[in-house]
Amino acid sequence: MLEHYGQTAKSDAAQWGLNARRREISCGAWSRSRPEGAARVVFLPTFARIPSRFMLQLSVLRDQTDLVLAGLAKKRYATGPADVAAILDLDQRRRQLQTSHDSAQAEANKLAQQIGGLMKSGDKAGAETLKIRTAELKQHTQSAAAELAQVEKEQQQLLYKLPNLPHASVPEGRAAADNEVVREHGAKPELGADALPHWDLIKKYDIIDFELGVKITGAGFPVYKGQGARLQRALINFFLDEARSAGYTEMQPPILVNEASGYGTGQLPDKEGQMYHDAKDDLYLIPTAEVPLTNIYRDEIIPVEKLPIRITGHTPCFRREAGSWGADVRGLNRLHQFDKVEIVQITEPEHSYAALDTMVAHIESLLQQLGLPYRVLRLCGGDMGFTSALTYDLEVWSAAQGRWLEVSSASNFETYQANRLKCRYKADGGKTQLLHTLNGSALALPRIVAALLENNQTSDGIELPAVLHSYCGFSRIG
RNA sequence: AGAGAGGUGGCAGAGUGGUCGAAUGCGACGGUUUCGAAAACCGUUAUACCGGCAACGGUAUCGGGGGUUCGAAUCCCCCCUUCUCUACCA
């Protein structure tokens, strides 16, 4: 499947260049490394309401080339000018070919009809005469179609390499140190000198077992035991219940996805090497519920009265984390498999940044109820994800490690994913337009668990926040 | 996993090589009629790309891809998928 481009007909799948996958680039590690305490503090409103007009569609590349180049530069995308120039060259060629192909085909179609008429009236000689011309036309359309397919393929591959453009409010910067701290909340707990990091606490109370995971699977696949397993389940239920009362509909999507879904949300081809792949059935284990949840709306024209879409789901997430190493990935800080509750919104373009604010507010309310000190960061251009236009990271204070841990990332993708997904609606006046997609973790489990254990430890147990007591069926560990 | 039958426009459902982008019905939208509504009647009813300021014109799309032909919804091949029976299993 998905092996060949059509000669004249181009299916959606082919237009997306799905067969381009194997030769694509692979970028760096999935997760950003974030040395703690390095961000500079600034004070800004949650978001600046700046009209969005960016989408990496061909029309935008053509009409607003300078803005695109500026955006790519802010995102620290090195080969932007060369790639954009190449895409525009290919585009000109593509349009020539299309026009030439279409007019030849139009003539051929007319002749075919005439031949039909001649055959019926018994004029075989007349038909044969016309066939000479159709043979010429056929040769022309075939070669034009073949070249067209080649040009489209090259163009699509280049387009897939381009990241989304950053929103105007995104700060300049190269790395984590350049992110802006939008606000901080909660007091950091003072722990005694004998306070333990979570990787010692889980052993002390025998609630999470890494060695056992190594035996069964390998590094980065811990086994949660007893109260540890129950705490996980409690957090998942708490997060899902909170999302539901915030208006999100709960979904249970598949956790293996096909190639088209990977392209739809932008994991492919960008992060091919970071996903577990089952070659036998050509399926990918999801790195986040974002992929299946957002792809529910792939190839859809959503009735405007159903907007905004708000959905949530709990899934395990799988990340190969190739190239990841060092002290800051110890314990629960980075895993190959972890659980996460995700929230997804799909909105009309004019409402997406307000929606992003409500998502961040929702995530903050979770952290507040859990009593965890946190801060909200606005990521700089160089530290943002490939597909995002604006990303807020939320980090909790891990008291025994003495560092901030990223527990959530909430992003507005504007039309970047929607363009790939073909996720649209009928705007006023009946015009079909791309929607905006957004998502956020609410929340990722392991680092929440780490912070809960560390921040709430006493010499002989861990006192859990009140909100979890009924969910857990216990109030303390140990 | 084996055998069989299917996949056509928002839905239902015709169409087995030549004005078929596709009959018909339903639904939806607009209009005539009406005090208003129903009924009836008339009209409209997809997506993408190319050309054009636009009106509009062209091309493609009948699950997906490839092939045969001057011409394919219709014939051939591969794949996906749905249903039924059998097998198996949570």
Structural commentary:
- By secondary structure, the chain is an alpha+beta fold.
- The chain folds into two domains: 84 residues; 302 residues, 2-Layer Sandwich (BirA Bifunctional Protein, domain 2), CATH 3.30.930.10.
- The protein contains 14 helices and 20 strands.
- A hairpin with a 4-residue loop joins strand 7 and strand 8.
- 42% of the residues are buried.
- The protein binds one RNA strand of 90 nucleotides through helix 1, helix 4 and helix 5.
Which key phrases capture this entry?
alpha+beta; 2 domains; nine-stranded mixed β-sheet; BirA Bifunctional Protein, domain 2; elongated; 20 strands; 39% helix; disordered N terminus; 14 helices; three-stranded antiparallel β-sheet; 478 residues; single chain; RNA-binding
Mean pLDDT: 85
Q: Could you state the CATH homologous superfamily of the largest domain? A: Bira Bifunctional Protein, Domain 2
Strand content: 15-25%
- The parts where pLDDT drops under 50 for at least 5 residues are 1-55
Tell me the total number of β-strands: 20
The best one-word shape is elongated
Distance between the termini: 55 Å
Instruction: Provide the CATH architecture of the largest domain.
Output: 2-Layer Sandwich
Name of the level-1 CATH class of the largest domain: Alpha Beta
* Rg value: 26 Å
Structural class, from secondary structure content?
A: alpha+beta
* Spatial strand sequence of the major β-sheet: 1-2-12-13-14-17-11-10-5
Major beta sheet, specifics?
A: 9 strands, mixed
Task: Work out the helicity level.
Answer: 25-40%
How many domains? 2
CATH topology label of the largest domain? BirA Bifunctional Protein, domain 2
Helix count, DSSP H or I runs of 4 or more residues:
14
